[in-house]
Model the fold of this input.
Amino acid sequence: MPTKLPKWQQELFATPIWLLQTFVSVVLILTIVVWLLKYTRFGREFWHVLRPCLDKKAASRALLMISVMIVLLLTEVRLNVFSTFMSSGLYTSMQDMNASVFWLFAAMNAAVVLLRTFNGAVNDFFDQAIAIKWSERLNAVLIERWLSDKNYYRLQSKRHTPDNIDQRIQQDAQDFIVSTIEFVRGMLNSVLTSLEFAIVLWGLAGVLTVFGINIPHGIVYFVFIFVILATFVAMWIGKPLIHHNYENEKLNGDYRYSLIRIRDHAESVAFYGGEAQEKQSLNQRFAAIIRNKWRIARQSVFLSGFNDMFSSGIKLFPILLQAPRLFAGQIKLGDIQQTVQAFARLQQALSFFRLFYGRFTVYRARLERLYGFMTSMEEPHHSQQPQRQISQGSLKIQNVTVHRANGDILLDNLNFQAAAGQSLLIKGPSGCGKTTTLRMLAGLWAFGSSGNVWQPEKRHTLFIPQRPYVPQGSLKHVLCYPNIQASNETLIATLTDCLLPQLAERLDEEQDWQHILSPGELQRIGFARVLLSQPQLILLDEATSALDEPTEAHLYTLIRQRLPQSIIISIGHRGTLDAFHSQSIEITAPMNCD
Done:
């Protein structure tokens, strides 16, 4: 009759078939879970964030990565099971005073430890690799959607615009990815470990007597019932944290934005002497953060206190429940040690959702913020626009009406035209729609307009605002924004023509030019872009308000000389501008100007 193999050898030889069977089972269960999740709010929001990141190639790569993750997890669980058998052998050999068996199990235990360490290192690297690739893809999706179709501009005009978009793109997206990987791995590990160690504990457990009732393998039922009940209690305690953590992200984003505004407008604040007002505003925003943190702290204390009490209180139970069987000679000391380890592993696995719930509330809040941001960019926003036609070298506005955000008429029956080489000055009281007219021409007015517009193509149109935008980078990049092609010699000559010779030797210098350059220098940079891009239609919105009259005259004369066929449309209040325009119109709104 063949000798029955020890339990650890049986488990070792059964490992290949176990890995295959368990892998197939996990894949099937995951497929069912994912299918069921799509009917939940969480599942719909998660899929909405994930779906844009998955094209055909990316989806195949993601499935491969998930498969590798499952294999690594199964290997980790199996090694943990072997570890309990090795520990059992060590303690049993010491009880039996068998030195040779002791050193055998010691060597095997060391091998298991090395394998677990290697597997853990591979797991960690793999997690980081997934996070990096996913982060790269999700960031590209968010940036693409935010910058496409003028969403970055349009969202500012919405009544319920998403708060702190920069935070959602950068911090929320990165933390969401890391937490997702951690949650998925932890969930899979919890399920697999629970099943595997429940089997191990089932083989070790004897009869549990409760109130005179004998329950075979009762210790297994005991741990499952107690941990599941504790999980529901923890979820009930921690549920308010979802809202509190959502508010925490929003309030911190608002506070950072206030600090950035002071930095960006430091000179204005200093001239006004507005330090006291800014301090009061910052204190109020920070006080809101503190009040919310106290709410989080109170709820977190209840949750962590309950979790700690439960985790500590349950540790002694496996020893207490197995001790009578040891004293009766039914099991050995090694079995007690293996029971303690298996019980601890099973309890820890089953407690994953209970212990992770506090962090899951933060994760849930980040998911909602990302979902809200993405859906806000998908909402229909194509308001009524004028009938547009391309007209080379001329501009004509016919019977154009522009509406306010509430639907009222801002501009009514607007008509003007300008041929190649002509210039038009738009006048009118502040707030009556002069800049709105330029926004309508650029197709940026989001609240509706009608009529007919004939104008050059957008790529042949250049808009210069009162304070020109300056991107990050070198001065050459600033001058050539967004896509002007010019040699250094041309740039130096243009700077000199626009009365900025002091900047000619700094083309390759990278500085915070938006803050280094004065308002007058920024406006001259705008005129330099006009000369470099040579547009057919030039839209100037109070583009010389920071310049003295001689400089203003020089720049207007310069662009007319260099670009004799371009159409110039200016907005301004100065009487000196009349001399540089062949015609002018006065805009009067049908409603009182605010």
The longest helix spans residues 99-147.
